[in-house]
């Protein structure tokens, strides 16, 4: 499987584009118009794969394990992988056309080689651990005060990539 390539300017995914007149392979960013030619001596630049998925239902979701390399996705240390126990995950929101539940998050394990992913359960709180993605596995503890409340705010800033500046 080929590696994903990202734009050095805006960190979005670079898409391959074939210039049939010049017989060149190019990589193009759809957001900022960055483009570059593929290095003819590089195997990773010249190995292109395409995967087509035909979905039959809204619960038929495919999540590539390479999605954890996307620097534009959110990260959290408050999710535990049910497969390997790793405590870091990348997450993204499912579009409404894929899932009837608005704001449904998908967490993907960041442990290299694991690739496990799970949808957020209805009552899951991001701060809890998600084991086997079943309702009732995590609990929200209310009534935090003082330094604990400040620590929670810092965790939320880390969750959404805010530096607090």
UniProtKB/TrEMBL annotation:
GO terms for biological process: maintenance of transcriptional fidelity during transcription elongation by RNA polymerase II; transcription initiation at RNA polymerase II promoter; transcription-coupled nucleotide-excision repair. CDD domains: Zn-ribbon_RPB9 (cd10508). It comes from the Eukaryota. Residues 77-119 form the TFIIS-type domain. It is found in: Nucleus, Nucleolus. SMART domains: RPOL9. The keyword Membrane does not apply. Keywords: DNA-directed RNA polymerase, Metal-binding, Nucleus, Transcription, Zinc, Zinc-finger. GO terms for molecular function: DNA-directed RNA polymerase activity; nucleic acid binding; zinc ion binding. GO terms for cellular component: nucleolus; RNA polymerase II, core complex. Belongs to the archaeal RpoM/eukaryotic RPA12/RPB9/RPC11 RNA polymerase family. PANTHER family: DNA-DIRECTED RNA POLYMERASE (PTHR11239), DNA-DIRECTED RNA POLYMERASE II SUBUNIT RPB9 (PTHR11239:SF1). This is TFIIS-type domain-containing protein.
């Amino acid at each position: 499987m080929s590696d994903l390539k990202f734009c050095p300017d805006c960190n979005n995914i670079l898409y391959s584009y074939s210039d049939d007149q010049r017989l060149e392979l190019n990589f193009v960013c759809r957001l900022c118009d960055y483009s570059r030619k593929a290095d003819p001596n590089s195997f990773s630049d010249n190995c292109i794969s395409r995967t087509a998925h035909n979905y039959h239902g809204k619960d038929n979701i495919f999540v590539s394990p390479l999605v954890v390399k996307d620097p534009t996705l959110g990260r959290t240390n408050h999710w535990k992988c049910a497969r390997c126990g790793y405590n870091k995950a990348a997450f993204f929101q499912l579009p409404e056309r894929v899932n009837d539940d608005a704001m449904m998050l998908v967490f993907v394990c960041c442990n290299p080689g694991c690739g496990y992913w799970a949808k957020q359960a209805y009552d899951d709180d991001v701060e809890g651990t998600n084991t086997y993605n079943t309702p009732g596995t995590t609990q929200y503890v209310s009534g935090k005060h003082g330094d604990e409340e400040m620590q929670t705010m810092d965790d939320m800033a880390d969750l959404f990539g805010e530096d607090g500046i």
